[in-house]
Specification:
about 350 residues, about 40% helix
């Protein structure tokens, strides 16, 4: 360890259970070595909500994750980020104001519907969802949350990832013509009343640039050159790619697929490059693992050990993540429904 690592560990040990450092799987190894827990969005939401003894939570991820921790935290807890500039372009594609405009549009045609919001979204969007009886979801439990709404006889407005919504609906057996897209940049969402009447799931036009980097030609190339290889991708990839692959699933589900693969398997993985590289290193004596394409999240890369140390030493106000209580109360309804499901 270098001096920065040693200083982080010294503070970590001194604070003990009063400090909790969760880190997303997409973080660099240099950050994960200091984390109390590593996981995907769902796992970290559960773990953070349960760590009531921690006075300070330092979330190593992007802003929507830290906001979720701030919504779920208990009294006397505070949440910080090593770099508050670490955001999520997908989350930025949907604002609460745009969602309200969409709700007005839906009210012209739909009588019974519910919003479902991906956790990759702002606290304000989660609050919109909570006020309207909806639930959050992650890529791990999107199918379960969609089924909850469908079983209640409701149509679904899913925000903000078009591709996770399309892939989840397809997994549940919904025909493609029952799944449409709402584009907030187009007049009336770019969808006619006639088409909206026939729609069961309306997906917001948003996307993750990391997972949309995977293309069908990447899959075709692997199939041609490595016909025995398996190809697995995250469901934020577009449906044309997902349907050509052998498996798709959340970050944790992709990890589990790799760990359960037979010895000697060759697997190409379509998700954030830091995770693929780490899995390849961990499994290099047993499997041959490769990125379907090297796609990285620059916002995740903003979290460095130097930034982490600055927070632990100084606790700067600018790095603290807060959500106004009136907003947090509505957003908590949305997250609590997800966690209950």
């Amino acid at each position: 360890m270098n001096n920065v690592d040693l200083a982080i560990e010294a503070i970590h040990q001194e604070m003990g259970p009063r400090l909790f450092i969760p880190a997303h799987y997409y973080q660099d190894d240099s950050i994960l070595r200091h984390a109390d827990a590593a996981g995907d969005s769902l796992e970290l939401s559960r773990l953070t909500a349960a760590r009531r003894e921690a006075e300070k939570i330092v979330f190593c991820g992007v802003r929507f994750m830290a906001e979720t921790a701030a919504i779920l935290k208990g009294p006397g807890q505070s949440v910080f980020m090593p770099d508050p500039k670490a955001g999520c372009p997908m989350a930025d594609t949907a604002t609460a104001e745009q969602a309200e405009a969409c709700a007005s549009r839906l009210s012209e045609v739909w009588k019974d519907w519910v919003p479902i919001v991906y956790v990759n979204s702002s606290a304000a969007l989660k609050a919109f969802c909570g006020r309207r009886g909806g639930s959050a979801c992650t890529s791990s439990n999107a199918g379960r949350v969609f089924q909850w709404a469908l079983d209640a006889g409701k149509r679904i407005l899913f925000m903000p990832d078009e591709h996770l919504g399309a892939n989840t609906a397809h997994d549940l057996g919904l025909a493609d013509d029952l799944v449409q897209v709402y584009d907030p940049k187009e007049a009336r969402g770019g969808i006619s009343n006639y088409l909206l009447e026939k729609t069961q799931v309306l997906n917001w036009k948003g996307f993750c640039h990391v997972h949309c980097a995977f293309r069908t030609d990447h899959v075709f190339q692997v199939r041609a050159q490595h016909p025995k290889a398996k190809i697995i991708v995250h469901p934020e990839a577009c449906k044309e790619v997902v349907r050509l692959c052998d498996f798709h699933g959340s970050t944790t589900q992709l990890i589990n697929y790799v760990r359960q693969a037979p010895d000697g398997s060759e697997v190409y993985i379509g998700t954030e490059h830091n995770l693929v590289r780490r899995l390849a290193n961990e499994e290099n004596n047993r499997l041959r693992l490769f990125p379907l394409y090297a796609s990285s999240c620059p916002d995740m890369g903003l979290t460095t050990t130097e930034a982490l140390l600055r927070v632990l030493q100084d606790w700067p106000a600018g790095n603290r993540v807060t959500v106004p209580e009136d907003l947090a109360a509505d957003a908590r309804l949305c997250l609590d429904r997800m966690l209950a499901l």
